[in-house]
Amino acid sequence: MIRFLYFCLIISFATNTWAQDQKNKPLKGVAIAKKGTPVLDAKMDEIWKSCPKYMVNQPITESLEIDSKDMATATVRLLWDDGHLYALWVIKDSELSADAGDDWAQDSVELFLDQNLARSTTYEADDAQYRVNYEGKISGQGTGYDEADIKATTLKNKKGYIVEMAIRTHAADMKAGTVMGIEFQVNDEHDRAQRDAIAKWFHTKDDSWQDTSTFGKVQLK
Ligand code: BGC
Ligand code: CA
Question: Which residues contact 117 (CB under 8 A, 6 or more apart)?
Fold first, then answer.
């Protein structure tokens, strides 16, 4: 009898721990942005260290010209304040180049934002694609894109580079609880003047630049 009770106790403990783990597990495709205003210096300042990081490491199979283990990948952390969303990207990229003619083919990162979470299949006035290459060159597309809305700094390091972005959010109610659509992408120009790989966070097709319906989400905390 004692043995049986002991057995029940162990089972109930294991089930509870499992349930707790499930509860604490981040939801796939849902990123959390903590509140705070970073200094835009492309450095991992204290404020970033407590932010959860998200992996941008899923290859877009159709666009893969190299072995996926050689593809550039990144981690992204997010912060927000009254008028902005901030992203700190740490990119692993063994060969840095901006030789390709198209901005999206150079070593660069892209943040796609659907501020009103309408998940439209074409870009509306609140939707934009923001891109920064490893040398800090800014570009972007989409109905809601305005170059004046983005500032960024970059720094190279031994493993690749860091990008710190500030995006002015004009169409979202910046308060705790707000949810926007978001996607992250790393473009990898490997050893020729062309894009050899694309890594993404959530959606695994190269269509985030024209369709917001498959973005993941960011929740302001
Ligand atoms: C895509 C490219 C596309 C470009 C347009 C990039 O995110 O990967 O394929 O041509 O956006 O802005
Ligand atoms: Ca939208």
Answer: 179, 180, 181, 217
